[in-house]
Amino acid sequence: MDEKETTAICDFPSKKGAHNSCKPSERDQAGSWEQYFNAIPDPVLVVRPDGIIIEINNATLLAARKTRDEIVGQGICKVVHGGRWSHIKCPLEEFLKTCQPKIEETRLPGLFGEYSFTISPVKELDGTIDKIMLIARELTGDEIQKVDSIRTAKLVGIGELAAGVAHEVNNPITGIINFAQILLDNYKLDSTGINIVEKIIKEGDRIASITRNLLSFAREESGEQEPVNPVDIIKESLTLVQHQLQKDGIKLLTDFPPNKSFIIADFRNLQQVILNLISNSRYALNARYPSFDPKKIIEIYCGEVQKDGLPFYRIVVKDYGTGLPQSILDRLFEPFFSTKPPGEGTGLGLSISYGIIKDHGGTLRVNSILEKFTEMIIELPAGAGK
Description:
By secondary structure, this protein is an alpha+beta fold. It contains ten helices and twelve strands. It has three domains: about 40-140, 2-Layer Sandwich (Beta-Lactamase); about 145-220; about 225-380, Heat Shock Protein 90.
């Protein structure tokens, strides 16, 4: 922390005696504030509007498991979210620039838990704001479940919107493709005209493919469900990608239960989900390790678990690739939201996977820390008859 910043936060003095420039009575007051500040049991951080941390209390050190020098002077996203990618903005950092009060609930791997953040701008005597106080309170189990329910309801709403948009687009785009085909089949066109019409058909087909994917996300098209063994789905999926994984130098580790379990599911739809998750893991591993590396590993394990006293079947696909910034996890299953750079993904794969799992009465969630790992967790109702 430089001298200018130290003077600006006399109410939150540093450990290096920043309050020595104050008058004697002010030094006593500052000392009291330091004691009060450090007595707060919840993590408290004082940041600038640009997200740089300028003061913390002792509870932050305990929650982050870091030293003061490892936190003060760092960006808020790096400390509480574990960092971000250059092509994706951190919502927390962007909101701080508005200097508005807010309560935000988020998962903070940098503070090892799920917290509710109270964001409070601190006004100077002249009305300007150059400091913002963030107080983090760890969420209870019931509060975490409530947050998850809100997120799920939001995604369901997005699915309904996606289905409506797909229906509205599907009919006119089908007409455009058909009329373009008529022009191609029944009219004499020069090479330029043929090229233009073929491009219309090609782009029309691409739009039609997107609308089909949106309908898949909304799960208006579902296949026949019957008792299936999830391990059979995983093994058949692996036979389709095993050669590609070996070519990329990716090691596959599996852990399957010895006893068979059955769920009611559409075999092909669940296979589509597994293949998509493996594809994402492969992309993340190749992005982090372009050449051979012993850490290029995908783990797949599964088995029955209990949730609220009911049997569920859990499938986990985990990789040690790039990981994901915490700031984007809430949006990961939204249609057209992609973690890949522009031009490298449509943002529909996880949306469709989420819709398929939801259609099966299950959940699909993500647990990830940037530059460490990503695990996708599928949980489906278990206990179906054989």
